[in-house]
Design a protein that fits this description.
Blueprint lengths: L7 E5 H12 L7 E5 L1 H6 L2 H11 L3 E4 L2 H9 L6 E3 L7 H6 L3 E4 L2 H13 L5 E7 L13 H10 L3 E8 L10 H21 L5 E3 L3 H6 L7 E4 L10 H4 L6 E6 L2 E5 L4 E2 L5 E2 L4 E6 L17 E4 L2 E6 L7 E4 L10 E5 L5 H6 L5 H6 L6 E5 L1
Helix pairs in contact: 1-3, 6-7
């Protein structure tokens, strides 16, 4: 690993390849693989991750919002890209950039068909999103007549895919609920299929779905967090490699005496002489204020070093008493061993949130 001189998120493409192969080997050859690269590829680097996944053989990519898809097209990626959550205001851009919209509501279906007809398109691919129990986005069963009437009446669009999302695929206690979602999905798909004279791609599994419900891979799986090295289960985490490491350096060292306080509102007071270090990293970089005053530890020279005092917008102080350290030396926030899931759990959140929260001002370095 190269020496760093500022707060840096290192992204390891070899680890990404390892994780990709792990999931690819968990699904049958004929099933398509969609790599989910929304939210800057879970906080890492959208374009580099998208390129690598394409090279590795992914069949499809997915993003949440239209602008994320446009960014990939501008980087010259030609692979199909599904936009999970497009809004009508962006439908023309979706088409201009050859993105595939997820269509989840009557309002959006009507609006998309209108746009596609206005542009005189034929068979523009869309994926229909069905609500099978998450109650977030998706058509409900009683929308079916409306959908079928709309899509059989127009030539402008074609149902390339039909999908849904599992609400609790990582939770073994919710197996019955998940099986019920799967059953609803199949019934829904059968009805749609009986009206269309062509086949479409069915998909429902996210990372935990891939691993826990092999019977539900259908025609394609959608893998997000697993590609980044986290599997929502201790035994899976052991088989994956976290791709991102967050590191920083010591900006300044201070020596405190008993009674001195640290940071805003003096929440930390030294009980003895201490050596502390200030880091160029704060809540505006994605280390939530909740991490402050909780005895949460970063790593300096492989030793755990606690955060002390309130976390500031651009700074965090740590206790490095008793360690032979100098300004400019490296401090580890998380990596493949001291991983983001462990750190996230200390403040009752999940790796997803910690990773996607690392803000854009943190330098990204991609290791090939
Ligand atoms: C984010 C997302 C995924 C990926 O989920 P992971 O748990 O990260 O694998 C899959 N499908 C949809 C609809 C999503 O929004």
């Amino acid at each position: 690993m190269a020496k760093i001189n500022e707060t840096t998120l290192e992204i390891n493409l070899q680890a990404l390849a390892h994780n990709y192969h792990f999931f690819r080997n968990n699904i049958s050859q004929k099933i398509k693989f969609m790599g989910v690269v929304k939210a800057s590829a879970y906080g890492s680097h959208t374009v580099e991750i998208a390129k690598k996944l394409t090279d590795l053989g992914a069949d499809y990519l997915a993003v949440a919002y239209t602008q994320e898809g446009i960014k990939l097209r501008k980087a010259n990626l030609k692979i199909p890209i599904l936009v999970f959550h497009p809004l009508p205001i962006h439908f023309e851009e979706i088409i201009t950039h050859k993105l595939t919209p997820s269509i989840f509501s009557k309002r959006n279906l009507s609006a998309f068909i209108k746009t596609a007809e206005k542009l005189k398109l034929e068979n523009y691919p869309i994926h229909l999103k069905l609500n099978t129990g998450m109650n977030r986005l998706g058509f409900n069963e009683n929308d079916l007549d409306f959908i079928l009437e709309k899509i059989t009446k127009t030539k402008a669009i074609k149902v390339e895919g039909v999908f849904s999302h599992l609400a609790a695929s990582e939770d073994k206690n919710e197996k019955e609920f998940t099986l019920n979602q799967l059953e609803k999905f199949q019934i829904f798909c059968k009805k749609i299929s009986s009206y269309l004279n062509y086949r479409f791609t069915k998909h429902i599994c996210n990372t935990s779905g891939i691993l826990n419900y092999p019977q539900a891979h259908f025609d394609m799986v959608r893998c997000g967090i697993g590609l980044y090295g986290y599997g929502n289960a201790v035994e899976i985490d052991k088989k994956l490699k976290p791709i991102a490491s967050l590191k920083t350096i010591i900006s300044q060292i201070h020596y405190l005496k008993k009674g001195d306080s640290v940071s805003y509102n003096r929440k930390f007071k030294a009980e003895k002489s201490m050596k502390i270090a200030t880091l160029p990293l704060g809540y505006a970089d994605g280390i939530h204020r909740d991490f402050g005053n909780k005895n949460i530890k970063f790593y300096f020279k492989e030793k755990p070093v606690p955060i002390i005092g309130d976390i500031c917008m651009d700074m965090i102080m740590i206790d490095i008493s008793g360690i032979d350290g100098k300004e400019g030396e490296e401090v580890l926030i998380f990596d493949a061993q001291q991983n983001a899931e462990k750190l996230a759990q200390t403040v009752n959140t999940i790796s997803y949130e910690l990773l996607t929260g690392i803000s854009s001002r943190v330098k990204r370095v991609v290791l090939a």
